[in-house]
Design a protein that fits this description.
alpha+beta; about 200 residues; single chain; four-stranded antiparallel sheet; 5 helices
Length: about 200
Amino acid sequence: MSTSERILNEARRLFDAAGITVLNGDSILVVGLETSPERDLDDFIRDEKRTFIIRGFELHFQPLLDSMTDHIRGRGLSVEMVGHCGYPQGNELNLKRMAVAAGLGSWGKNAMLLHPHFGQRLRLAALRITGVALDETGSGLDEFEQPLYCGDCTACIDACPLNILEPYYVCDLPACLGSSAWSPDPGKVECCDLCWKACPVGSS
């Protein structure tokens, strides 16, 4: 069994989905966990200093990422987490693009990742394995032009309360309630999830 296969098998044991793509000579291991009421990966809070804390990732993702990092280092490879808890900071890396390139799913019309089983409930993190190009699990391309699941469906577009969705594009991203908090006060950050909850792909 090759190094790529061993790493991928371990990643798929720990996470709900995993794939590999190559970027600038480094391998990006993209992993996903399904968010649910029991494992709320959308649990974000602001503290009194308005610091944004990804509490759900710290609780559920971090221990698995630590195990995966140890596994990769045990094979003599150099690896680092992308951002905090595998979650990119700023423009460091677009995880959805990497996930599509790694074959984890396709773009949805609301510009979110669509996984055939988990739909839009998959939350992503990434590890960068530096200086080595492992076997890729997808096309290596970020394919907007070849959506796999949407067809003529417009459920997510119709669900948007601000009418800012066009097929595969958010035409006013700063206005999107899914990327901004409804309340500036300290405590749990409540974000809009109407578009991805309306999606029938991977419905449980």
